[in-house]
Design a protein that fits this description.
The protein is 35% helix and 18% strand. It is of the alpha/beta class and 399 residues long. The chain folds into two domains: 4-136 and 144-148 and 304-354, Rossmann fold, CATH 3.40.50; 150-301 and 360-385, 3-Layer(aba) Sandwich (Rossmann fold), CATH 3.40.50. Helix 8 (217-231) crosses helix 9.
């Protein structure tokens, strides 16, 4: 392979383990025989075009070690969608700093960026290897069993619903329902994960609604009525991307980002949970709570799983191995070979197969009603989450 320098960037929303992947890429690149200097993009491709480039190879060892336990995006992130006018600027900076290895850590939009930059450089005769490192709490990347960041964000959601469920159960004479909204624009992986909070039939959550199914208000209210009659209170989990059958978001948001994605968290877009809350209150006259976590679960390092942190780090190391082997145009993938005992192997997926598209949950991961998950999903997610706490209830021994 052609010797040269490496650049690393982080894009899109952070996760609690994205910096662990960054540490893996840095350490792998520093040990490489074909990579010289190791650089970082300050604020993604946007900062890169402005030559805001950090020296990562010279970072102290305690900083690199600490990255593996630090949330957020240490390099600074960006959601800039590259245009045709950007390509000459990008290649000029690549040439100026003799960058031959181009690593980006991110989701499907990020993989699209790498794919397009790599294709442009090759069309101009500039030899460069572009490799993607998977990252997204949404878990919606094709070509991989799951993404680093998902398990930790899912665990954070599970613990939130477990604890708020205990509160709601004990307060059901005051508040008869609670709505918990989680991020997840096009897929329900994060909302579905909260099913692990349930140990007994009356435990939270009772109902889970994901973007894989069109939202039906009448069916929703019927589901709520049934759960209330069974338990005397109702715990509802919803994904931010819920839409009606005509495509209208339940949030009623019309704001989009640069990738034409609906901004569910902008200008009232975080109101999926509020709208569901309003529907229940108006139909039944119940008093209830709504809980909207937004990006908090994306940086919850306290609840990050050991498995997630380790897999994120090894994805960074594997990215460098792919680069050294000349496997340009690929993203590192995790391929599950066994559920029990849990085992994965690291592989690769073509960027063109991953870019832009979002991977929904398979239909077999839901129940027939579309308002909860199936046993198949529980088998899928349980190995990723780790041990959960056990809560107790008083025995109802009345005198």
């Amino acid at each position: 392979m052609k010797k040269g320098n490496a650049i690393i960037g982080q894009s899109g929303g952070p996760t609690s383990v994205i910096n662990s992947s960054l540490a893996g890429v840095i350490e792998g690149a520093k040990a490489s025989s074909v990579i010289g200097n190791v650089y970082g993009m300050n604020y993604g491709i946007e900062g890169f075009m402005q030559e805001k480039i950090l020296d990562l190879g010279g970072q102290p060892s305690d900083i690199l070690d600490g990255l593996r336990r630090t949330p957020g995006s240490a390099l600074g992130s960006s959601r800039h969608k590259i245009t045709e006018d950007d390509f000459p600027k990008i290649m000029a900076v690549l040439e100026k700093y003799n960058i031959r290895y181009f690593f980006l850590i991110g989701g499907n939009d990020t993989m699209d960026t790498i794919n397009r930059v790599e294709a442009y450089c090759h069309s101009k005769g500039y030899e460069m290897t572009g490799i993607g490192v998977p990252k997204t709490v949404d878990n919606d990347l094709f070509g991989t069993d799951h993404t680093p960041g998902y398990a930790s964000a899912a665990r954070s959601n599970i613990l939130n619903v477990m604890q708020s469920g205990v509160l709601a159960r004990d307060m059901k004479k005051v508040d008869q329902f609670v709505v918990y909204q989680t991020i997840g624009r096009d897929s329900g992986w994060l909302g579905a994960a909260t099913a692990l909070a349930k140990r007994k039939a009356d435990d939270a959550p009772h109902l889970i609604y994901c973007p894989e199914f069109s939202f039906d208000k009448d069916k929703f209210l019927a589901d709520v009525d049934k759960a209330y009659k069974l338990f005397g209170w109702v715990s509802i989990v919803c994904g931010e991307g819920l839409k009606y059958s005509d495509g209208l978001p339940v949030s009623a948001s019309r704001t989009t980002d640069k990738f034409s994605n609906v901004e569910f968290g902008a200008m009232g877009g975080a109101s999926v949970g509020l709208n569901l809350h309003r529907m229940v209150a108006e139909e039944f006259g119940f008093r209830g709570e709504f809980q909207i976590t937004e990006s908090m679960i994306m940086a919850d390092i306290v609840r990050a799983t050991k498995l997630d942190l380790e897999e994120a780090y090894h994805c960074g190391l594997e990215a460098v191995k792919l680069g050294e082997a000349g496997e340009t145009g690929h993203m590192v993938s995790l391929n599950r070979t066994s559920n029990n005992p849990y085992n994965i192997e690291y592989g690769k997926a073509l960027l063109k197969d991953v870019a832009v598209k979002a991977k929904p949950m398979p239909k077999e991961y839901f129940n027939q009603e579309g308002n909860f998950v199936s046993d198949a999903f529980i088998d899928y997610i349980r190995p990723l989450i780790g041990e959960l706490p056990d809560f107790v209830e008083l025995e109802k021994n009345f005198i």
